Amino acid sequence: MEFVNPITLRLGAYKNKLGLLAVGGVTMMFSELFQNIDLPILICKNDTELSVCYGNPSVAHLLSKSEEDLLGHPLQSLLRLPHGDYQNIQELLHQEGAALEVQSSILKSSIGRVPLHLSANQFSFQGETYLKLCLDRRSNHPPSEVNSQTLILASHVAHEAPNAHESIERMLGVLGKSLKLQRLSVFEAEDFETLCMSYEWCSSEVKPHYTFWHDIPRKQLYALLMETELPEETHGVFAAGDERVIAASQSKSILSVPILFGQEAMGYLIAEDGNGMRHFTNDDSWLMEESSRLLASFIKRREQDRSLQYHLDVLNTVTNHVDGMICVHDPESREILFANRAFSELLCVPLKELRGEDSEHLMRELGKEYSKLTSEEKSLRWEFFNPRTGKWYLAKRTKIKWIDGREAQVDRMVDITEQKEHANALEHIASTDRMTGTYNREWAYRLIERLLHKVTAESPASVVFVDLDNLKCVNDSFGHSEGDRMILQTVCMIQSCIRKTDVICRWGGDEFVVIIMANEYESNRIMESVQDQVKAYNATADSPSRVSFSYGVAEIHPGTTQSVEGLIAEADQKMYDNKMQRSCNKN
Fold first, then answer.
1. 280 and 347: one domain?
2. Which of 146, 283, 498, 571 could be stapled to 465 by a disulfide with Cβ–Cβ 3.0 to 4.6 Å?
3. DSSP-H helix ranges across 376-518
4. CATH assignment at residue 259
5. Does 427 reside within a domain?
6. 401 Cβ contact list (under 8 Å, min separation 6)
7. Among 18-22, 138-142, 478-482, 483-487, where is mean pLDDT lowest?
8. Total domains in the fold of the chain
């Protein structure tokens, strides 16, 4: 056997559990089934008075009683149902397997009747017949076409707003005008005891006067709204907070509905009309209750927005006073979630315009195509030069969990211009021959080693080994200063003939290596032009010695197993052969 609408639970699924709980009584069994169900539920025995044997927390809250106080009371004395509805429920017990659904109400002191949708059915357990009664506070009265359209319009204008705060204000405006109210207010819970007026819509003929209402005791809220003293014994009833409240005095009428987000009571949505004779209809109540559910979601989103903004403000305060540029972006959409002031200054984009921007095209200015870190990658580093600032930066990308819970990537950039200049200066010192200003032997070795892997048929390169002739004789005959002059003059003439892409390096005392980005034939032609300059210089120079050198060229062949040592040895041998041939020609 199973329960029927509005809650469907199959007893078969609880067979084992029910068997164990039978020892402790049916009350424990009903508690296991209905304790955590939001809908108010009563279980009654099949006797003449329909005595209550169980009520879940929701129905206890609705009736303003404890769960223990519900037990044993006759159903009619507890709910004070209309006589016809009570008779229908009694008759249900004589119709096995049948169910009953009626629009009804229960009577509550000082408030009057609270409309309900009643659903009832009977079931048997351990040979006894019981009645299950569901009290749905939401009326099944179908809404009017006008109110349905109003709710759609209110939802639309709210979702079109730029933020949750504006959404709430726009929604109140639509509702206030549709219901022809004087005032529509939102009172939010500050704590368990007090409320504050957080929003207020007023018609054109009414001036706002609740703006500064704070610390309002819940029990006095309706008395303050009605602008009259209510009997002391009614305060607790009016402040129940979980049900619709309709009240009227000579000065005004009010309709109040709770704002609930799940089980969380967030406050009240309260409509006011200056005509104390106005009767709020079921249609009015439906529109207010449906709107309060929409309102609860916007209040929750507003709190999330405020929390997010608070964290962003903290981030701004901290990151705007630290060295370095920071940018957080969504790896999937590439949307920029956060950037500090230094980052906006680097890109010359106002800070407020960066958030939400696509970071892909901005990354190109940071010397990197946009990329998402893979699951294996923990971080990514790169250096880039920004021509706008004329500075070098070191960037590092890492994964983080963003403040809204999503996965994100953060780029941190620091200015390394000084370190770069210092490193370049050290590198220059380490790679330069002090006397000639050319690269030294170690640097020549590195350059040739790099070329071995880069040379192609379309981009050839050659190594030229240069040896000055008779430098020892010049030093012995005219002194080292004359020998140094000879070295510097040779370097100067070689530099004047080679191109910007070519490099001259001092290999030893009177030995040089010239790296020319050309094949062997072109390299020989360049070196012959240097020899022509040497002849012209010697013909006019007023010096005791003559500049003279020999050279040999070794071309780097792509795809071979050549080594640096092999290339130098080949060029050195050709240089020696060249020197011997010139010596023989002189003789």
1. no
2. 571
3. 417-431, 441-454, 471-478, 480-497
4. 3.30.450.40
5. no
6. 407, 408
7. 18-22
8. 4
Residue type, 255: L
- Cβ–Cβ < 8 Å for 144, 131: no
Q: What is the mean pLDDT of residues 523-547?
A: 89
| Residue range(s) defining the domain that contains residue 99 | 11-136
* Predicted pLDDT of residue 524: 94
Both tokens assigned to 244: 């619709």
CATH of the domain at 340: 3.30.450.20
**Is 176 within 8 Å of 288 (Cβ atoms)?**
no
> Does residue 457 lie in a domain region?
yes
Which candidate, 40, 7, 285, places its Cα nearest to that of 141? 285
Residues 205 and 282 in one domain: yes
Same structural domain for residues 413 and 450?
no
Mean pLDDT of 420-431: 79
In angstroms, rounded to a whole number, what is the distance separating the alpha carbons of residues 368 and 362?
A: 9
What is the maximal distance between C-alpha atoms in the chain?
144
pLDDT of residue 263: 62
* Bridge-based pairing state of the strands 325-329 and 264-273: unpaired
Alpha-carbon gap, residue 568 to 563, rounded angstroms? 9
Instruction: Assess contact for 78 and 106: CB atoms under 8 A.
Output: no
* pLDDT given for residue 237 in this prediction: 38
Per-residue confidence (pLDDT) for residue 23, from 0 to 100: 31
Q: Is the pLDDT of residue 304 over 80?
A: no
- With the C-alpha atoms ordered 74, 79, 84, 86, is the resulting torsion angle positive or negative? negative
Distance CA 520, CA 575 (A): 13
Task: Please give the Cα distance from 429 to 423 (Å, whole number).
Answer: 10
Residues 491 and 578 placed together within one structural domain of the fold = yes
Cα R_g (the chain), whole angstroms: 46
